[in-house]
């Protein structure tokens, strides 16, 4: 008997639909033997692909407007993180010798609690902040914010998007009234005869996105603005469109 759940990929903004399937009762100790990680899925710096245990879950693509049943490499291999040998599954305490050693959860939570209380007692509640992330679900983001404001009493809440997406969000609000994302359904691109991408390499960052550019490519109207010969720019070859490679510092002139 197997159990399955429909969900969405946790990585990028496409939120590709996927189904996770796990045999009932399967645990890390009872799962099948080790399988090699494909070379393209291993870390670039790895000399050899490590041996991993078979994933606890089977991942399959599910029909959805953004991915239409397909997934990129990150989606297909997402379940391998659950039992990856490099995954940290217990608290580690750094000793005076610089070595991190496992400790119990009670000890770890006590250390963190003491440090937070001491810091706030000395410097005020806002001396402690929390750092979220775009990969959190809505529910987790809500709980993190509530924990920060009510439990910690701090107004210092930040997330990784401020270092990459905030400038794009500000521009999007001024141009389209939308802080991020597209102001139209992604599937509308299928019928577009001309699409311009500026500094965007969706073939590598959002691979399922590329299928929605095929209509523009067939019409010879795919325009990619990027100084580099990126994977996305390669789609403009063979009559697919135009690759503009502006010199550094000439962005405003082009616009």
Folded structure, characterized:
There is one protein chain. The chain is an alpha/beta fold and 255 residues long. It has three domains: 2-83, N-terminal domain of TfIIb, CATH 2.20.25; 124-183, no CATH class; 184-254, Dimethylsulfoxide Reductase, domain 2, CATH 3.40.228.10. Helices cover 24% and strands 19% of the residues. It contains seven helices and twelve strands. It has a three-stranded antiparallel β-sheet with strand order 1-2-5, with no helix packed on it. Strands 10-11-12 form a three-stranded parallel β-sheet, with no helix packed on it. β6 and β7 form a beta hairpin. The chain is globular, with a radius of gyration of 23 Å. The N and C termini lie far apart (58 Å).
**β content, as a range?**
15-25%
Radius of gyration: 23 Å
Provide the helix percentage: 10-25%
Can you tell me the CATH class of the largest domain?
Mainly Beta
Number of strands: 12
User: Could you give the order of strands across the largest sheet?
Assistant: 1-2-5
**CATH architecture identity of the largest domain:** Single Sheet
Average residue pLDDT: 86
Helix-strand makeup class: alpha/beta
Which labels suit this protein?
single chain; 255 residues; alpha/beta; N-terminal domain of TfIIb; Dimethylsulfoxide Reductase, domain 2; 3 domains; 3-stranded antiparallel sheet; 12 strands; globular
What is the secondary structure topology, with strand pairs?
Layout: E1 2-8, E2 17-23, E3 34-36, E4 51-53, E5 58-61, H1 73-76, E6 92-94, E7 100-102, H2 105-123, E8 130-132, H3 138-152, E9 157-159, H4 166-176, E10 195-198, H5 202-205, H6 214-218, E11 222-225, E12 241-244, H7 251-254
Parallel strand pairs: 8-9, 10-11, 11-12
Antiparallel strand pairs: 1-2, 2-5, 3-4, 6-7
């Amino acid at each position: 008997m197997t159990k399955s759940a429909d969900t969405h990929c946790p990585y990028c903004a496409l939120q590709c639909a996927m189904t996770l399937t796990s045999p009932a009762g399967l645990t890390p100790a009872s799962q099948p033997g080790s399988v090699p990680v494909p070379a393209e899925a291993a870390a670039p710096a790895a000399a050899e692909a490590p041996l991993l245990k078979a994933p606890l879950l089977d991942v399959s693509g599910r029909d959805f407007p953004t991915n239409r049943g397909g997934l990129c490499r990150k989606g297909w291999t997402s379940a391998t993180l659950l039992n990856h040998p490099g995954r940290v599954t217990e608290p580690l305490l750094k000793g005076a010798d610089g070595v991190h050693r496992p400790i119990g959860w009670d000890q770890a939570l006590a250390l963190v609690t003491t440090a937070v209380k001491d810091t706030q007692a000395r410097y005020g509640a806002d001396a402690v902040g929390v750092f979220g992330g775009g990969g959190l679900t809505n529910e987790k983001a809500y709980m993190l914010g509530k924990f920060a404001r009510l439990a910690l009493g701090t107004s210092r809440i930040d997330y990784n998007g401020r270092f990459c997406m905030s400038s794009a969000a500000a521009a999007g609000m001024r141009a389209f009234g939308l802080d991020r994302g597209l102001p139209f359904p992604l599937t509308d691109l299928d019928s577009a005869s001309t699409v311009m991408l500026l500094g965007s390499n969706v073939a590598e960052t959002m691979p399922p996105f590329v299928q929605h550019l095929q209509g523009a490519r067939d019409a010879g109207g795919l325009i990619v603005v990027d100084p580099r010969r990126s994977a996305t720019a390669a789609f403009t070859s063979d009559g697919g469109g135009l690759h503009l490679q502006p010199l550094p510092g000439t962005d405003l002139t082009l616009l």
